[in-house]
Amino acid sequence: MIRKNIRGSTLIIALWSLFLLTIFAVQLGVIVRQKVTLVYRLDERDARYLIAEAGVKQAIVQLRKEDDFFAADFLGERWSDQVDTFADIRVGKGKFNVSYYYRDGEYSRTMYGMQDEESKINLNKADVEMITRLIETVTDVTLSDAQELAYCIIDWRDKDSFFQHPQFGAEDSDYTGKRNSYEAKDSDFEVIEELLLVDKMDQEIFDKLEYFVTIYGEGKVNINTASREVLMAMGINGRVVENILDFRKGADLIAGTGDDDIFLQSAMIVPQLSQVFDLNPSDLASLSNLVAAGKFTTKSENFMIRSVGELDHKKGRTTIVAVAERTGQIKYWREEI
């Protein structure tokens, strides 16, 4: 009887041990599968990153080539819109696309290439009137709110702690009272996202504004690549802005194609435009003053590269956003997964 009980206990212990080992094996299998899946995902992420990086390198090579051909930069160049060079380019088991949205009022389209940073308003160089006009043009805020935000931007970047306007603006006291307290920077913007720290700025306004502003370059705007919104922000009469855009489009009336007309030098802007359109004395004087003040350029030195890498038959994309000088020097780099 005792022997039977011992045998029964031994059997029960063996069954429990087998049961526990089975549970352990299942759990171990789940953990292993999770780790293997994680490793695969990390491998895929690394692969996508390398593909996107290849797109950035391709763009830089193209930039350095372009400098040998033209004395001016314009939307019809190979750095700006070249499907064969930047669209669905195969790299190993994946592909990259280098592209941006060309925005011009309500009209926009995908351009395969790089975006000219000198086509934008430089936040570190523009005066308050230019920033005000841009905010009012591209957002839904009132003129008064646009002025208030513009002075906040000026106070953020200027080197002192004094208000530039008796009614508008923001200095240290406006920031130290916030939930996450900080002070006005009192120096140049280093990244565009820094705008979100500025008083009166919110995500909705930022999302509309970021496409038209930069922190790179000397502050001159490339008249061959600037959008309608940027030209309006410079204080150019709306009729003259349309003349400039129509001149650039060439005979087919489409920007970024082979027949685009080009302003070769800043000094030729007024003469070239006057040959095609009838400009009244007031428009001529206004445009001539901007040229004389050195507000325009026809040659660009900084370009934004947005390269998206993806693997064949796999979900997920990796985006690298970089800003590079024409020499190839990288000034900004951000990875988005």
Could you walk me through the main structural features you see in this protein, from its secondary elements to its overall organization?
This protein has ten helices and eleven strands. With 337 residues, it is an alpha+beta fold. The strands form three sheets. Strands 1, 2, 3, 4, 9, 10 and 11 form a seven-stranded antiparallel beta sheet that branches. It has a two-stranded parallel sheet with strand order 5-6. The radius of gyration is 29 Å and the shape is flat.
Offer a quick outline of the entry.
The chain is α+β, with helices and mostly antiparallel strands.
Radius of gyration: 29 Å
Overall pLDDT metric: 89
For the secondary structure, the number of strands is 11
| Gap between N and C termini | 69 Å
Main sheet: strands, sense, barrel: 7 strands, antiparallel
Q: List the secondary-structure elements in sequence, H or E.
A: HHEEEEEHHHHEEHHHHEEEE
Percent of residues in beta strands:
15-25%
Number of helices: 10
Helix share of residues?
40-55%
Which stretches are low in confidence, meaning pLDDT under 50 for 5 or more residues running? 35-40
Shape: flat
Structural class, by secondary structure, is alpha+beta
